User: What shape does this take?
Amino acid sequence: MIFMSNKSLNKTRVIAGCGVLTAVAVVLQYLEFPLPMLIPPFIKLDFSDLPEIIGAFAYGPLAGVIIALVKNIIHMAVSQSGFVGELSNFILGAVFAFTAGIIYKKHKTKKTALAAGICAAVCMAAVSLPLNYFVIYPLYYNLLGFPEAAVLEMYQSILPSVKNMVSALIIFNIPFTLCKGLIDVLFTMLIYKPLSHILKGKS
Assistant: This one.
C-alpha cells in the first residue's frame, strides 16, 4: 500500500503518528514570519512542510499529503487569505511531500533521503510558477480584491527592474520556494533518523 511504508506498521500507530505530525505542522504554520527585504510581505516563511516530509518518509507519500491537507483545513479557521493561501500551501506541500516520499520509498537510505528531498524541493519550486501565475494570484486579484498592479508594485519596491508578474515570480517566488524546501530537507536529514524510531515504534 502506498499509505504505509512498511506493512508491519500498526494502523493505530500510523494514525497517531500522523496526528502528532499534523499538530506540529499546524503550530509551525502559525509561526510564519515575513522577509520584507527579500520578498513582498504577504508571502511569509514557515517550516510547516517539515512534518509533512517526515510523515512521507515514515509512513509513505500519501501520509505526507494527508498531513498537508488537514494542516491547511485547520489553518483556514484563522486565516485572512480566504482559503487562497491555504490552497497554495497545500498544493506545494503535497507536491513536496509526495515527491520525496515516493522516491524514498523505493530505496530507504540516507543518500536516497537527501536526493529525494532535493528533488522534491526542485519540483515544488518548479510547480510554484504555473500554480501562482494561473491559479493563486488570479484568485487574489478576483476574490480578495488585490489589483495585479498593486501586487506587482510590492515586488518593484524591492527590485524596481521587475517588469511583469512572470519575471516577479521567477526572480522572487521560485528561489524563495526552493530555499524553503531545502531548509526543510536540511532539518529532516538532521532529525529524521531518531524520530523514525519513535514514529515506527522501534527501540
About this structure: The chain has one domain: 11-199. The domain at 11-199 is CATH 1.10.1760.20 (Arp2/3 complex 21 kDa subunit ARPC3). The mean pLDDT is 93. The chain is about 70% helix and 0% strand.
